[in-house]
Amino acid sequence: MRSYLTSFLLKVAACFSLLICFTVSQAQSQSTGVLVMAHGGSKEWNQHVRDATETLKEKYPVEFAWGMANYVTLQQGIQRLEKQGVDHIVAVPLFISSHSPIIRQSEYLFGIRDSLADRAMPLMHHTEEYVEMTGAEVDSTDYMRGMLMPPNLQQLDINAKITMTNALDDHDVVAQILHDRIMALSDDPANETVLLAAHGPGQESDNVKWIENMESLSRKVQNIQQNKGKGFKQIFSLTVRDDTEERIFNQAKQQLRAMVRQANQFGDVIVVPLFLSSGGREDAIAKRLSGLDFKWSGRTLLPDSKISDFLVNSVEQALGESSGQSKSE
Question: Per-residue b/e over 72-82, b at no fewer than 16 CB within 10 Å?
Answer without folding.
Answer: bbbbbbbebbb
